[in-house]
Amino acid sequence: MHVKSTGPLVKNGKKIYSGIFRDGSAGRYAKKRFRERRRRLMKKENRLMVLTGVPYGPGQETTWTYAHSPTYQEPTLMYLTGINQSEVILLLDPGSKESHEILFVKRKNPGKEFWDGVRFGVGDPENVREVKRVTGIKDVQDIDDFDEILKKRFLKRRKKQVGTFWLESKRAGHRRAIQTDHNWKFKKRIERLLRKWKAPKGCLSNIMQSHFNLRLPLDAYDIANTLKAQKITGEAFKETLRNFRKFDNECMVQGFIEGQMLMQSPYGLSFPGIIAAGHNATVLHYMKNDDPIVKGELVLLDFGVRWMTMHADISRTVPASGKFNTMQKILYEIVLAAQLAVEKKARAGETIAELNNVCWETIRKGLDEKFHSQGGLSKMEYQGRPHGVSHLIGEQEHDGDPFRDYGIEPMKPGWLISNEPGLYGRFCWKHKGKVYDEEIGIRIEDNLLITPNGCVNLSKGIPRRVAEIERLMARPRRK
Ligand SMILES: [Mn+2]
420 alpha carbon to ligand 1 midpoint, in Å? Predict the structure, then answer.
């Protein structure tokens, strides 16, 4: 039997660590790009810094979990190195007479690689040379030596300061932190070390804000990758609509659309999809996706794929039978009007808080003028706003601080935000001798790139108008 090597792929005579180095296809440019990001962070935060990657890979979260996402690195580390591998630490030491960047990885373990495939590691000089060549980081060390090396670097520094990254809100009355993730555990570990070394109190600080300031405005290459994610996601949606009448259960829609996306991208889904028929769509994060689809219902789809380290996050709402009924169409167009109003308003300097005002006010007015005034009745489980209209997108499908403090900051050129108005509730209407009474969830979500004078809707190729959706659903199945 011929046993294939588990080593790196060879393409055009060059080894590419395709699974490990996430922007690898950008070749030498990728290396330069990550180096430039680290340089900018060191310039902004002129201090010793240590940042951790994820502690385990997919399927290793718990003994019995087999979750799998091919892109799983902590986004902070992904942004600075492109390395998609667990148990990695990055040390930055700007101004040092020694190396300014050290990458800590585990020792090579051929027995483990027999099972799990190739990894960056130390202990094998040829592999270390390869890691340096691929990542552009010249100093690669054993992760078991991290404490010792950090101690040496720390004691050498005149200014006794260390920066690391954890998620924390500093908004007045909001002081709280995410205390359950690897970043927090790593912070605690550094604190313990500093105490052991009798370091002065308060010398550990959070670099979260300056890191996000660098990371959130996407660069040209990120935008190109986002466009690719949008394109794959949009094509998958169109193909799903053409086949929609074959599907009589939510799981069939999910299997089909995610299959279409995954066939075109090895980087995984942006998130597990939401496929919610009828009243299931009133559950905002519905994920069971196992109910039958009944003729006449609306079906809400929230889906998207990654390309490299970038994401698409799209929602569409479509009629199961291929045609919106009169009430569904009125409600759908109210939500669409809100989406267009947000798109018109979004620009650098504006805030997401202001986009929310525009969005939910447009829906309120729309309901009054186009539905309630015609005798329609509605019942919602919320006061005006079921959720925010926008979140940041970047290295993660939901990027930026998880407390969404950024909602009151002026938006910057290069920010990528979602535009996702929604309407969820029970709607009743008597019209032309017909009685409508439905529990409905409608969400229409596009992704907007903020520019100095407005925004670019990167999802504009993904059908959202009633006529476009109905046309695609009416198309006879291709043989
Ligand atoms: Mn979203």
Answer: 7
Closest CA to 282 of 381, 384, 192: 381
Mean pLDDT of 450-456: 97
Ligand 1 center to residue 397 CA distance, Å?
Answer: 7
Report how far ligand 1's centroid is from the alpha carbon of 301 (Å). Answer: 11
What the block records as the tokens of 169 is 């809100």
Distance from the CA of 387 to the center of ligand 1, in angstroms? 10
How many residues are there in the chain?
479
The answer regarding whether domain 9-214 maps to CATH 3.40.350.10 reads yes
User: Which position has the token pair 């900051």?
Assistant: 409
The phi-psi region of residue 308 (left if phi > 0; otherwise alpha if psi is between -120 and 50; otherwise beta) is left
> pLDDT, tens digit, for every residue of 281-306?
999 999 999 999 999 999 999 999 99
Residue reference for tokens 């060059």 = 14
393 in Cβ contact with 313 (< 8 Å): yes
Least reliable range by pLDDT among 65-79, 87-101, 128-142 = 65-79
Ligand 1 center–CA 313 separation, angstroms: 5
- Closest C-alpha among 301, 312, 289 to residue 449: 312
Q: Is the pLDDT of residue 2 over 60?
A: no
> How far, in Å, is the centroid of ligand 1 from the Cα of 254?
17
| Ramachandran bin of 169, using left for φ above 0, alpha for ψ from -120 to 50, beta for the remaining angles | beta
Pairing of strands 162-164, 204-206: parallel
CA of 424 relative to ligand 1 center, distance in Å: 16
Domain 217-474 listed as CATH 1.10.10.10: no
CA of 392 to the centre of ligand 1 (A): 9
Tokens of 144: 């078991």
Confidence of residue 8 (pLDDT cuts 50, 70, 90): very low
Alpha-helical regions (H) of 168-249: 182-196, 208-215, 220-242
Interval between CA 443 and ligand 1 midpoint (Å): 10
pLDDT at 99: 96
Q: Which of 43-57, 106-120, 198-212 has the lowest mean pLDDT?
A: 106-120
Domain residue spans of the chain? 9-214, 217-474
Strand partners, 438: 427
Q: How many CB atoms lie within 10 A of CB 117?
A: 12
Of 336, 312, 313, 314, nearest to 324 (Cα)?
Answer: 336
